[in-house]
Amino acid sequence: MSEKQGKRTEIGEIGEFGLIDQLSSKFTVKNESTLKGIGDDAAVLGSGDQLQLLSTDMLLEGVHFDLSYMPLQHLGYKAVSVNVSDIAAMNGLPKQITVSIALSNRFSVEAVEELYKGIQFACEDYSVDLVGGDTTSSPSGLVISVSVVGEVKKDSIVYRKNAEENDIICVTGDLGGAFLGLQVLEREKAVFKANPEMQPELEKYDYIVKRQLKPSARMDVIHELSDLGLVPTSMIDVSDGLASELFHIAKSSEVGVTIYEDKLPIAKMAFETAVEFNIDPMTCALNGGEDYELLFTIGQNEFEKIKNHPDIATIGYVDKKEKGLKMVTKNNNTVALQAQGWKHF
Ligand code: ADP
Ligand code: MG
Questions:
Q1: Ligand 1: does its nearest atom lie under 6 Å from the Cβ of 293?
Q2: How far is the CA of 20 from the centre of ligand 1 (A)?
Q3: Ligand 2 centroid distance, CA of 292 (Å)
Q4: Which residue, 12, 43, 56, 165, is most buried by CB atoms nearer than 10 A?
């Protein structure tokens, strides 16, 4: 019902994904070249054997970053990484980006140059070209929106759908670090506010702070999978938290999943910081966002190819849809997975 007719629905009632579903359901695809529209990590466009990927992500000051502890260079790097990560999640290679910024007069030319230094480093690391964008003023904060174009061969493309019963669930790197890095930064900010003489104590937390401030997209893994001749059956990047991403794979693939708590990869520093903050490390691994690792499923016959890989953990298996989403705890109890993810509303 429209607002004119008097009903007002709060966005929080349907949530971010509910809103996207509701808005996008009214659109139909008109072009043959739109192979996949809304609903995966990137749109898939084109025809023939070589396809294009397109994705976009926006970062807002006060929502996604706090400039009191986020260096502008890192912010530029991160804005590119989070976009490249969505291309990686389709098993593609990033090629071009556009960058749009909205700035207030709080920012100097030198400050914007710092931001673009980070963007440039990322362009080097991921071999992408900056090909355009838009610059506009903003009443107060900084907004940075990046779009990325990528390429993928038709036979190598990996969607969130197509995970099959008995597939093995894999995740790269370690989880929960970025969330715990944020907790450390927030704590040090509060300490500094209370007593500006205090120097932030960050060295001890260098790894997780970097996970938060300067995440990398796992293009290295995409290249390795290609070298191994391994095409996952489904894939997504971990931006909102492992549990939330498992729900996306399960929904798109119409399957259930079972994961094992003792198989979740958590870095020692992340684990110890969680304990220090009195948070369950497993909750951080399951629901802490922004790790930008890759979650994917492979056929059992492919297990040999990754079983000795130091940076890929096998955390569970794909089940029938009716089995739902479950986690076997360290005490051998089976619990239903809850997708908390990041709540923006
Ligand atoms: P990701 O976390 O991988 O960036 P999102 O959760 O942001 O993906 O988005 C999920 C899907 O919804 C994507 O296909 C994205 O392009 C689409 N989407 C998000 N916001 C909008 C919007 N406002 N209008 C149309 N499509 C959207
Ligand atoms: Mg994604």
A1: no
A2: 7
A3: 8
A4: 43
pLDDT on residue 6: 80
The pLDDT, as a whole number, for residue 17 is: 87
> Which ligand neighbours the alpha carbon of 217 most closely?
2
pTM of the model: 0.95
**How many other CB atoms sit within 10 Å of the CB of residue 186?**
12
Is 245's C-beta closer than 6 angstroms to any atom of ligand 1? no
When pLDDT is cut at 50, 70 and 90, the band that residue 51 belongs to is very high
Residue 4 pLDDT grade (very low, low, confident, very high; cuts 50, 70, 90): low
CA angle 306, 247, 302 (to 5 degrees): 20
- Ligand 1 within 6 A of 86 CB? yes
User: Around 3, how many Cα atoms within 13 Å sit in the side-chain half-sphere?
Assistant: 4
The atom of ligand 1 lying closest to the CA of 17 is 6
Report the distance separating Cα 260 and Cα 243, nearest Å: 12
- Residues 275-308 have pLDDT tens digits of 999 999 999 999 999 999 999 999 999 999 999 9
Q: Which atom of ligand 1 is nearest to the CA of 43?
A: 14
The closest residue, in CA terms, to atom 6 on ligand 1 is 17
Q: Which residues, other chains included, contact 118 with Cβ-Cβ below 8 Å and sequence gap of 6+? A: 71, 72, 73, 74, 75, 76, 77, 78, 79, 80
Which residue has the CA at smallest separation from atom 20 of ligand 1?
Answer: 20
Q: How far apart are CA 6 and CA 9, in angstroms?
A: 10
